[in-house]
Specification:
7-stranded antiparallel beta sheet, 5-stranded antiparallel beta sheet, 35% strand, globular
Length: 255
């Protein structure tokens, strides 16, 4: 309720707020942003595994988690729909979900959380943490932030393939990679095992981004990559007709 003028407290000179001009832009940060490479489409083959990826710099672009609170397909039937709804330039399917459509792990989208931390399964061994300083982290580090996506297993850590990955199943894979600094990529592969993909990625790069840390996402019939025409080489969609709706996506946006 508004306060009548005669009842408003009077401030002394010492109590009156001082207004200062905004600090000038940091020239170092501006220079770093201007030198960052634009997002780029990569189509390559590593150890015989076909891979399509979008490499980008986190100083100019960011990944957000697009989660569907009412379950798979309730808002967006595919990655393209999820991306265009947020004016994104690319998108990839996200983490695993239960037969009932609940996230198999903790998800945070625009600060709203769903699910809970998956502590038991390798499918929840890591997190993508969005925000101003995005990172990939082990679940033991108790990740926090407005954008979280739990998935797994890790394929590559510190530039080395993770030991003990499955060799049994060969299917399409979706994954996210980080060089430990500003470089990132989201990618989809052809049919392969987790172990063979990890070995192919370790000590390699996609679009100039070293695959130093790589986290597996939901794959197989969930694997869905879309790239807009704003990226040279696009538009491009990799989503077979037998794919099923998924719970969430990672959407690439300009900062």
């Amino acid at each position: 309720m508004p306060i009548a003028a005669e009842h408003r407290p009077q401030l002394t000179l010492a109590e009156k707020p001082s207004f200062r001009p905004a600090a000038p832009a940091d020239p170092t940060r501006s220079a770093a942003r201007s030198s960052a490479p634009a997002p780029r489409l990569v189509r390559t083959s590593l150890a015989g595994i076909p891979i399509t990826a979008i490499a980008f710099d986190a100083r100019t672009h960011r990944l957000v988690v697009a989660d569907q609170a009412d379950g798979p397909g309730s808002q967006w039937p595919d990655a393209q729909s999820a991306a265009t709804s947020q004016e994104g330039i690319a998108a990839l399917n996200g983490g695993f979900f239960t037969p009932e459509g609940q996230p198999l792990g903790l998800v945070a989208s625009e600060g709203k959380q769903a699910g809970s931390v998956n502590r038991a399964s390798s499918l929840g061994s890591g997190f993508y943490m969005g925000g101003t300083t995005p990172a990939l982290a082990r679940r033991e580090s108790a990740p926090r932030g407005p954008e979280l996506l739990q998935s797994g297993p890790f394929l590559v850590e510190q530039g080395r393939p993770v030991a003990g990955l499955s060799t049994a199943s060969s299917t399409a894979r979706s994954f996210i990679g980080w060089d430990g600094s500003h470089g990132w990529f989201i990618a989809r592969s052809g049919a392969c095992s987790l172990q063979s993909l990890a070995k192919a990625l370790a000590s390699n790069e996609l679009g100039g981004v070293p695959a130093r840390h790589v986290l597996n996402l939901d794959g197989g019939r969930s694997s869905d990559l879309w790239i807009s025409r704003s990226i040279p080489g696009g538009p491009l969609e990799q989503r077979p007709p037998w794919n099923k709706p998924v719970r969430n996506f990672l959407v690439l946006l300009p900062r």
